[in-house]
Amino acid sequence: MEKLKPAVHKKWLIFTSGLMWSGVGILLNWFAYRWLPAFERWQVFFAYGLGTIAGVIIVKFGFGKLAVKNRNRINDYPEKVCLFAFQRWQMYILIVVMMSMGIFMRTSGLIPKYLLAPVYIGIGLALFLGSFVYYKEFFQKKELKKEN
Length: 148
Hints:
Structural class: mainly alpha
Mean pLDDT: 87
Strand order of the largest sheet: 1-2
Number of helices: 4
Distance between the termini: 23 Å
Largest sheet: 2 strands, antiparallel
Number of domains: 1
Shape: elongated
């Protein structure tokens, strides 16, 4: 069973975390960007203004600290660990709940897109900016030791 586990060096967990955070951040902003043609001018400014302010606040007081905590947790792992350990297993549950809520809000029509866009922009920007915690760690690590 141990041979089936996709074990990688923990440095690659750091990189994987950065890619995931960046990718989801870009995806959320892409959703918001696609809604813009239907907005009036004031709604575009509202969405981007509020979303940017929210993103900076979220990364400063939430996601940035979470990224540092995750980075430190990964650094405490042994040299080789399962590829999916870049998040704690409890976080996968939270991710599924958040994705479900996002899909529901986006597709139900209960919340106007011009009000939903700042949420997507804010969370997306915070995830994207938070990903640089991982990239900084990845590129500052010493070269991987050659395995015997």
